[in-house]
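Quick one, T. Sequence first:
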Amino acid sequence: MNREELLKEMYDATLVGNGPEVLDLTNAGLAMGISPEDLLFESLIPSLEEVGARFERGDFFVPEMLIAGKAMSGALEILRPLLAETGVESVGTFVMGTVKGDVHDIGKNLVNIMLEGAGFHVIDLGVQVAPERFVEAVQEHEPDIVGFSAFLTTTMPMFKANINALEKAGLRDRVIVMVGGAPVTQEYADAVGADGYAADASAAVSRAKDLLQRRRAMAAAGA
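Structure tokens:
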């Protein structure tokens, strides 16, 4: 198998969520001398982007996204330390958590996988994350974006509580705030003062990239 064939097979295996094959091909690619960056940027990321495109077209659904994401995350376990050694820069840092009072994490985890696949460094705070924990994480990690996830209408008011906590700590202007979850709408995101909202994992990645590019462009213009 040559380089192009291996990258194509890895792309196809990721697309259908064949985790064991993706792992085997990752190791085989590294043994062949293919760089971790090339495996990521020429095979894994394009495959996950295609998964997102198929989801948006209605050809794929959440289960297909999950298994493709899991297949890729297995490869990332191998590639992440190698990429760190080579100094590959991440797109940006994203702190993510499910808000206090809510223990749902499937949607959050899927978004995390898609973000990682797109080149973000993701710090997952887990579930039941209190406002003060989000504040601590923003102070500690200095992320570009912080994401609040809620699955229950009863926990959605925590978005505002979290934003208020960031404002009180003097951190609100230093970070982009994104919100999401099954009952969340664009109108609600606007009402609580979030910078961005996404209805699903694929849209979350696109929105995160867009918000980050705009923030950096504004910073450059003001420099």
